[in-house]
């Protein structure tokens, strides 16, 4: 009986101890999370870089002494389920803010615009000329022709550039990687181009280099194919299929007959291509010349590059737009004609 009472007493004391630890921990957590990080009123510039996540951002805050308790910060972020809307950019914080306010702001992607920074989004499928026009519109370059000239003649030291033929009319077409960039006002055209080439180099080293030895094509030819896929495909799931269609045509010594290459050869995007358009004299016109065009026709995104490296396992040779971004695929010419007629009937 004595031992039983003693055991109960020990369990009771353990319960009180554990409860006390929980209460103290909870109060410490609340006190830390909702108290200013300092009595000072000092501005802090905090930057979130591309590819960072909740864990890396909290680690960076700890290194920069913005937060002092990494465990409590992670607990708060997980309980609030924040970090999914994290955005690359500049965040203006203050030492008078509480850790909860700092975490809410940064992990919810509430960016502060630095007046000296310009954010520019270059979409997949843009040409060098379209990129120059976008940069000019954003006030980053004054002369479109000078930017294009720097693309053609500037000195840039990247391994992948060595594969580009010197006689290509637009040397960096396909290599200015589409992404959202932040540029400081007054930046030179050379430095803008170099930053975009550096971003392409990230993809080159992580996606292309590990697979290029198993390919029948050079890295430059992969980018040419990826650029065609970028322009022809509207749905991500179809990119590897469309890639395979064009590879199948090459393997059968068929002309690629990509309308996107004709649009590039014409130098303009037309809603409807006519027979005379298909006869335009250009090494980029794959209706007129066999094989791949002379060079890329736009800047492909990562998904199109992956599709060019890993095409689908299919024997399709033809595809016809359904008019909604998706396509009919077939290896039968009669079926191809049937799909074309169906589309004409639908339009009429």
From TrEMBL:
<dbReference type="GO" id="GO:0005886">
    <property type="term" value="C:plasma membrane"/>
</dbReference>
<keyword id="KW-0456">Lyase</keyword>
<keyword id="KW-1003">Cell membrane</keyword>
<keyword id="KW-0961">Cell wall biogenesis/degradation</keyword>
<protein>
    <recommendedName>
        <fullName>Endolytic murein transglycosylase</fullName>
        <ecNumber>4.2.2.29</ecNumber>
    </recommendedName>
</protein>
<comment type="similarity">
    <text>Belongs to the transglycosylase MltG family.</text>
</comment>
<dbReference type="Pfam" id="PF02618">
    <property type="entry name" value="YceG"/>
</dbReference>
<keyword id="KW-1133">Transmembrane helix</keyword>
<feature type="transmembrane region" description="Helical">
    <location>
        <begin position="12"/>
        <end position="29"/>
    </location>
</feature>
<dbReference type="GO" id="GO:0009252">
    <property type="term" value="P:peptidoglycan biosynthetic process"/>
</dbReference>
<dbReference type="GO" id="GO:0071555">
    <property type="term" value="P:cell wall organization"/>
</dbReference>
<feature type="site" description="Important for catalytic activity">
    <location>
        <position position="232"/>
    </location>
</feature>
<dbReference type="InterPro" id="IPR003770">
    <property type="entry name" value="MLTG-like"/>
</dbReference>
<keyword id="KW-0812">Transmembrane</keyword>
<comment type="function">
    <text>Functions as a peptidoglycan terminase that cleaves nascent peptidoglycan strands endolytically to terminate their elongation.</text>
</comment>
<keyword id="KW-0472">Membrane</keyword>
<dbReference type="GO" id="GO:0008932">
    <property type="term" value="F:lytic endotransglycosylase activity"/>
</dbReference>
């Amino acid at each position: 009986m004595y031992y039983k009472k003693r055991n109960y007493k020990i369990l009771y004391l353990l319960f009180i101890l554990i409860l006390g630890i929980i209460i103290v921990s909870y109060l410490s957590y609340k006190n830390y999370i909702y108290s200013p990080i300092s009595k000072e009123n000092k501005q802090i510039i905090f930057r979130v870089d591309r590819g960072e996540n909740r864990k890396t951002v909290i680690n960076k805050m700890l290194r920069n002494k913005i937060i002092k308790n990494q465990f409590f910060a992670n607990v708060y972020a997980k309980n609030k389920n924040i970090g999914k809307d994290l955005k690359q950019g500049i965040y203006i914080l203050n030492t008078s803010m509480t850790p909860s306010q700092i975490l809410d702001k940064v992990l919810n992607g509430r960016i502060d615009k630095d007046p000296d920074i310009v954010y520019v989004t270059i979409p997949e499928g843009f040409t060098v000329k379209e990129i120059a026009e976008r940069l000019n519109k954003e006030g980053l370059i004054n002369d479109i022709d000078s930017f294009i000239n720097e693309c053609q003649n500037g000195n840039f030291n990247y391994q992948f550039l060595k594969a580009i033929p010197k006689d290509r009319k637009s040397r960096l077409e396909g290599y200015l990687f589409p992404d959202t960039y932040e540029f400081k006002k007054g930046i030179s055209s050379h430095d803008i181009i170099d930053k975009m080439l550096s971003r392409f180099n990230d993809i080159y080293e992580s996606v292309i280099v590990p697979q290029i030895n198993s390919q029948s094509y050079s890295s430059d030819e992969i980018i040419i194919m990826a650029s065609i896929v970028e322009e022809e495909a509207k749905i991500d799931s179809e990119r590897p299929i469309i890639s395979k269609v064009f590879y199948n045509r090459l393997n059968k010594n068929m002309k690629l007959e990509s309308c996107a290459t004709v649009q590039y050869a014409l130098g303009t995007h037309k809603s409807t291509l006519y027979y005379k358009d298909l006869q335009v004299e250009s090494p980029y016109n794959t209706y007129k010349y066999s094989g791949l065009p002379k060079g890329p026709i736009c800047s492909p995104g990562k998904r199109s590059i992956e599709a060019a490296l890993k095409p689908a396992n299919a024997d399709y040779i033809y595809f016809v737009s359904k008019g909604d971004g998706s396509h009919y695929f077939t290896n039968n010419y009669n079926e191809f004609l049937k799909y074309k007629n169906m589309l004409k009937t639908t339009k009429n």
